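Batch job 17 of 40 flagged for manual review because the log was empty.
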Amino acid sequence: MLTPTTAELLNAIEVLNKLGERIHTDATHSVMQMPESSLGEHYAGRIGVNAIEQTSRIQIVAEQVKNWRDELLQQRRQNVSQSV
């Protein structure tokens, strides 16, 4: 497996963040469409919980990708300083 470039990892982080924003926006829109009833409130609550769970998982993955990018940057700096 080829190691991705730091730019590719940065793009992946941006895509993950955009996905989190989209999930949040879609959930907000869906909740606003729910009827004002106990069933509507129940569904709205589930939509909210699911959106929070999904965005939390996305944030975890984005943080892992960011850490990987930081590791690669540090390795490249070390390689440059060793070759100088």
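Reviewer: the log was empty due to a logging misconfiguration, but the result itself is present. Residues 22 and 55 are 10 Å apart (CA to CA). Unflagging and moving on to job 18.
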